[in-house]
Design a protein that fits this description.
Blueprint (H helix, E strand, L loop, with lengths): L2 H6 L6 E7 L6 H10 L4 E4 L14 H7 L6 E4 L32 E7 L1
Parallel strand pairs: 2-3
Antiparallel strand pairs: 1-4
């Protein structure tokens, strides 16, 4: 929602856009390309344990070292994360948090507005 519309709703502060993304099994190059395509300047990692044995390129240390070369700041905010909950196999909710459909892409980049 543009800032002018937020004022009409009685919201005094401008809204910031928040994007969410999961690394899934993509390559680091794919993740960086997605972030850059959406002009993301800061990646906030909310994983309780920012490491992966299977995908070490997404370990906290690796991201801290790699992302600044692409103009992307890395911030770890453990307090926003938690343990993953198992999604039931018969659940209509996809890993992206939306209702699953045959036309949904396998990767997603969602956005929402938040107060700055």
């Amino acid at each position: 929602m543009p800032c002018s519309e937020s004022h009409d709703l009685g919201i005094e502060q401008p809204l910031a856009t928040l994007y969410t993304i999961g690394h899934s099994t993509r390559s680091l190059d794919d993740l960086i390309a997605s972030l850059r395509a959406h002009q993301i300047k800061t990646l906030v990692d909310i994983r309780a344990f920012p490491m992966s044995r299977r995908l070490p390129q997404f370990n906290r240390d690796s991201l801290v070292e790699t992302l600044p070369a692409f103009g992307i700041k890395y911030v770890w905010m453990k307090t926003l994360g938690g343990y993953r909950k198992k999604i039931r196999e018969d659940s209509p909710i996809s890993p992206c948090g939306a209702i699953a459909s045959a036309t949904m892409p396998t990767t997603c980049l969602r956005q929402s507005s938040i107060r700055q």
